[in-house]
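User: These chains co-purify. Model them together.
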Amino acid sequence: MSLFNVFNIAGSAMTSQSQRLNVVASNLANADSTTSSTGQPYRAKQVVFSAQRMGTADATGVKVKEVVEDQTAPRLVYDPKHPLADAKGYVAMPNVNVIEEMVNMMSASRSYQTNVDAMNAAKSLLQKTLSIGQ
Amino acid sequence: MIGKLDQMMQFNEAALSLRGQRQQVLASNMANADTPNYKARDIDFGQALQGAMQRSSGGTPGNAAALVTTATNHLSAGGRSSTGLSAPLMYRMPQQGSIDGNTVEMDTERNQFADNAIRYEAGLTFISSQIKGLLSAIQS
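Assistant: Joint model of the two components:
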């Protein structure tokens, strides 16, 4: 029955938004990580969403296609006393823009809440459908 | 005799089925509010219901947008729900442009979602009262 698909659609959106929130949390946590296991400074990550058909043409869910790294150059901060400073005294800091990440976080939370509402609405409609004629 | 019962409930059944389908489409729009290049879709409910009633009464389909499929490999436009009613999916006109090509506006979608949910409940009430009417006729 068509209303059951709403659970799948809203569920896929909630999964994708929570992945996005995970990525935002990683970026915020590593906003000052000058090095990582690869020896390079941390690069900000972003998720790429893509629409995903679920069953009929009416039902389009969403999934995370890939997690890409931001390719802008790392920020150079002048700090000659830092152990990782290069020959000129600059340290490469991660290219995380904290303001953008906060906006991303707010947007992801709102989307998540909206999809939870959609799922609750579908659930109450289905429950009412079960009591037809009573 | 069973045919007459079917006929009596046919309109409400078709309406309810289409409302459920529309609920799916609106939920898809809300789920894809952040997907780049996703275009918001919707069903024109009045037209779709008319088309469904004309199809089921055996008349000529009033829905000119339905694709005629003459070979097995032809795809059909619009979604086919489990009851076989196919309502043509149309695109919603966005009020504001956006950089990433996404035309979903959350306020419109939430509005339509709430509206559709109430009308679905109204459809349920109509069917319930039809059944109760029949039952009271049987029992009196």
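The first helix of chain A runs from residue 2 to 29.
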